[in-house]
Specification:
By secondary structure, this protein is mostly beta strands. It contains 1 helix and 22 strands. Strand 8 and strand 9 form a beta hairpin. It is elongated, with a radius of gyration of 21 Å.
């Protein structure tokens, strides 16, 4: 008659994202170089908090003379490569305030073909063989325009992902964390950022040590991608080991307990995690037993 068993060694997930406030000019920057003149792919999730007239999402370099992902006030996405006259752009209305979407940018060096994908589907493409010189990666900022919104699961590959791999990054709308990537998907992966906690926003999960520097106090917010918790991650969802249809969760980031590798630990004040399938009502009858191991 066991209905649910929650074991901290199983099914503990986090889903945080990097939150950028445009008014604070926040950004995450790598001092390591990223080469935009070879084949490459960038994949990320974006949730815009607003649509100012100019919004930079990422920049490989320091200006529009390099490689820049830009969102305009009407929700169109533009990729600049080597100057404002060298662009590939989607139609308007592609970025919707308050809605997560997966964006993938590919570049084929031999032809100069740049393609923009949204949620696994091609939105626009164009050819440009300009060779930018600056190669520093900046996330949450482009040229002089900051991002206003949240970014999750940012990956950079030194190859062009296949159509199937691009669809796999969208993953039916739930995305992937680094731990979800297959061995094949990690081939030529240069850097991957899960943005799991404010303290670890700059951590390169790929192990390639391309650490990001946090400028002007970028913080975490609730993300789109639910990946398995690492130590010190806030717990978004915890699945029952004996029944995957039952889970405990907390949608509000500030109220999430922390996974310490052995236990799920609350702060004793505001942290709480709820099993929605077990909402108690006055109509519930019958015997039940609840067992928990608590460490104070």
């Amino acid at each position: 008659s066991l209905v649910a068993w929650f074991d901290p060694s199983y099914g503990v997930y986090s889903n945080s994202a990097a939150k950028f406030v445009a008014a604070s000019s926040q950004k995450l920057t790598s001092s390591a170089t990223f080469d935009p003149n070879q084949d490459f792919t960038v994949s990320l999730w974006l949730n815009a908090a607003s649509l100012p007239s100019n919004e930079g999402v990422f920049n490989i370099g320091t200006s529009t003379n390099d490689v820049l992902m830009h969102v305009g006030g009407a929700g169109g996405v533009t990729i600049y490569r080597g100057g404002v006259s060298n662009t590939v752009a989607t139609g308007i209305g592609k970025v919707v305030v308050g809605t997560w979407a997966n964006w993938t940018i590919t570049y084929v060096a031999s032809s100069g073909l740049t393609t923009i994908y949204k949620n696994g589907s091609s939105e626009a493409s164009g050819t440009n063989t300009t060779t930018p010189t600056a190669k520093t990666l900046v996330i949450g900022f482009g040229n002089t325009t900051p991002c206003d919104g949240s970014i999750d699961s940012f990956g950079f590959w030194q190859r062009v992902l296949t159509g199937a791999e691009i669809t796999a990054q969208y993953n039916a709308g739930v995305g992937k964390s680094y731990s979800d990537l297959t061995t094949a998907e990690k081939v030529s992966l240069v850097a991957w950022y899960d943005f799991a906690t404010t303290a670890s926003l700059g951590t390169d999960a790929s192990g390639n040590a391309r650490t990001l520097t946090n400028t002007n106090s970028v913080t975490c917010d609730a993300g789109i991608v639910a990946g398995q918790c690492a130590v010190d991650d806030p717990v978004y969802r915890w699945y029952a080991k004996n029944n995957a249809a039952i889970y405990a969760e907390q949608a509000t980031l500030a109220r999430r307990p922390i996974y310490d590798g052995t236990y799920v630990t609350g702060d004793g004040a505001n942290d709480i995690i709820v099993v929605p399938q077990f909402q108690m009502t006055s109509a519930m009858t019958g015997n039940c037993t609840v067992v928990a191991v608590v460490k104070r």
